[in-house]
Amino acid sequence: MTLAADVIAPFDEAGIEAVIREHVETRAPLAIRGAGTRAGLGRPVEAAPLSTARLTGITLFEPSELVIAAKAGTPVAEVEAELARAGQRLAFEPFDHRPLYRTTGEPTIGGLVATNASGPRRVQTGAARDALIGVRLVTGRGEAIRAGGRVMKNVTGYDITKLAAGSHGTLGVITEATFKTLPIAESETTLVIEGLDDAHGVAALCAGMGSPYEVSGAAHLPGEGGAPARTLLRLENFANQLRYRAGELADRLRSFGPAERLAPDDSRALWRSVAQAAPYLGPADRAVWRVSVAPTRAPGLVALLRDLALAHVYDWSGGLIWIATSPEGDAGAARLRALTRELRGHATLVRAPDAVRAAVGVFEPEAPALAKLSEKVRAAFDPAGVLNPGKMHDRRA
């Protein structure tokens, strides 16, 4: 891997510790990164870049125990390839941000954990956080700590493993992660119902998820450019089971219209595009929001944003809405967040110019009590405030 000359990239955990201690002494901030494929996520951080890209390698793999561990700079693709050889996978379907940001390189395990990057199968198996059972990280004190292990277990005090997932490098530099894995499904199919509007499409998704047929993907793609809308429900397991389950599910959903069944390869290709989201959101200069709300409220929210949303896609049975807006002004932040808050949801600005992300914030503003608690947790791990300062929230506000 080629790294820019200004990137600090130690070869081991001890080197990470040394760099952080040096920056604590001088109170000089650090911008934590892996391979940089998710660099556009979060508020801009002006600081010396510290990369884990050289911390590579799978450190533990026990197929019989369904456990794998890898250093933070290990490409996600390398871990997935090793698992595939044993007939296993990371069940949460890691989300790849490269199509959204038009970045190159290979997403790393550390970046996956730091952003809790989870794809369509999260609706069935949970997020990256739920599969993460152990983590090593170097705190803002320059101390390496280990949390969790090779099996699921209860903990006392801080659940550091869960805290690390989605912390965006603000609590510590992740150096290693351990995951619980699952077997790869023998086959899959997707039921496709065409022509539904958003309300009926999400209703069909909810009906499918409420069925006993173990739906592992539920997305609604509004029609664009004259193409019909498509409502997608994925089923995975043994081929002989899928024939029965797909037939029963199609029968249950017959009031929404006839359902086409996709062949396994066609189904996999379709969900790869759904997992990327970007193919359905239009040009790369648009701002992109990731909105979480109760599925039954999602179509109503989008209807209220018709003049703001340039494109949108529903995933997670409607519980996740990708919305593209103009990057001008606040990218629609004030109006979108006000409406989302009324529905008890939250919105994250996933893609926008640096100036917009710095001005309006990226993550949902925290309530005062929660902000105070978050600051206390952050101070316990990084008292000098040198790790990705301001990456998640502007603490000067």
From TrEMBL:
Pfam families: FAD_binding_4. Keywords: FAD, Flavoprotein. SUPFAM superfamilies: FAD-binding/transporter-associated domain-like, FAD-linked oxidases, C-terminal domain. InterPro entries: FAD-bd_PCMH, FAD-bd_PCMH-like_sf, FAD-bd_PCMH_sub2, FAD-linked_Oxase-like_C, Oxid_FAD_bind_N. Signal peptide: none annotated. One of its GO terms (molecular function) is FAD binding. Gene3D superfamilies: 3.30.465.10. Residues 1-184 form the FAD-binding PCMH-type domain. This is 2-hydroxy-acid oxidase.
